[in-house]
Amino acid sequence: MKKHILLLFLIACGLYGYSQEGFPGYYKQLDYTTKADSLYRLRSYEASAAWYTKAIGVQVEKGIQVPLANLHYGAACSWALAQQPDSAFYHLERSLAAGFNLAEHLLGDADLQSLHTDPRWKSISEGVARNLQRDLDRMKKYTERTVFTGDPGEIIFSPPDEYIRQFLFNDTLPFASFNHENFRIYLRADSYTAGRLPELKQELSEAMTRINQVLGINTYSKGVNLLFTDSKDEMKELTGFAVGGGLALPGQHMVFINSNKGTRRLQARHEIFHIVSNEAWGMCPSRLLNEGGAVYTDNACFYDNPVDVINAYMLKHKKTVPLKTLISDFDNLARKSEITAYMQSAGVFKYLYERYGIERMKQLWIHGFEQFETIYGISLEQFEKEWLAFVKKTAVPPGIDWDRLTHEGCG
Q1: Residue 281, φ and ψ in degrees, nearest 5
Q2: Low-confidence ranges of the chain (pLDDT < 50)
Q3: Which pTM was predicted?
Q4: Sequence-ordered list of residues with C-beta below 8 angstroms from that of 311, at least 6 positions apart, any chain
Q5: The CATH number fitting domain 162-280, selected from 1.10.510, 3.40.30, 1.10.4160, 1.20.1280
Q6: 180 near 204, Cβ under 8 Å?
Q7: Where is 78: in which H helix or E strand?
Q8: Taken in order 93, 77, 73, 140, is the CA torsion positive or negative?
Q9: DSSP conformational letter for 1
Q10: Which helix (H) or strand (E) holds 270?
Q11: How confident is the model over 190-231, as pLDDT tens digits?
Q12: What does the pLDDT read at residue 152?
């Protein structure tokens, strides 16, 4: 059966307080793949394959690295189940060309069982095995040359791969750079941000202190690339995202932040949290936990104790959503009401983290809500009642401006 790999190109964009419509290409592709997956589950395999093919054709913003190999693989599975071997092999060949390397998964996938007797199967299986070996060899060489076995006592910057180099080193939008603690900072030399370096350095140092505190680590020894743009237009030209704040690429140690005079506050804590948390605690597939943790770490939104009081306001005015829906459909909820999705996720994260402790949160971070009852000893339904009862006891301060939160986010 198909792996649900799409979520793992986790767009931990941290668009906290920005329109989710800032990346329409991604959302169009997400809609198409969601339809494809739903039809697959309904055993409407030809229709499923058709929607996967449409998803493959969507031009996604270049700030998201699209796993075309996995999309082609999904289409191949559906075509194979529809008894259309030629179409299945067409997509398997393109998946192979795009770098698909899950050799063990390929061989054990029941969806593709009908293809095993076809003469073309041997070429596909051998090709995927070659891809796997090539990538293992590359990783071995990369590790040998770039990973210190001892503690060097220094911040270590990993070499940016080809995908990241297109942003850092380009002729259209060249950037100057300098280092500060964990950060290699890229910016335009005559920009607003370049003119306030002392303040910027202080904000970044404070952000790192807060992030380390939340994650329960003493120090973080890996370098993070921070690229500052001057406007939404420059951000869009560089990444394809029409956003005014920023986005993070976990696993790539890369953060984009928009910074100019008179605009929203710097989103350093939120975005850098995505990078450090997914490195220090491991990659987290949950959008709720990624964004909830980032908002909790940022902990700023016009009002004192913002996470709890805004959740109390939302509960009082019937703006919260069922926990299971927040877990399974975060992105679609964020499109409808970003402040609801992000702040409710932060409320859930905050309560679990402060009530039950960091060690259980780290387990949930890795294993996901599927293992919630094993980790916490109560069901999701029991927890939701417990959390809502806590929120209900929180006093709602006068003057919360929901329209401002909806349109401006958290500043």
Answers
A1: -100, -15
A2: 2-20
A3: 0.83
A4: 320, 343, 344, 346, 347, 391, 394
A5: 3.40.30
A6: yes
A7: helix 68-81
A8: negative
A9: -
A10: helix 268-280
A11: 998 999 999 999 999 999 999 999 999 998 989 999 999 988
A12: 65
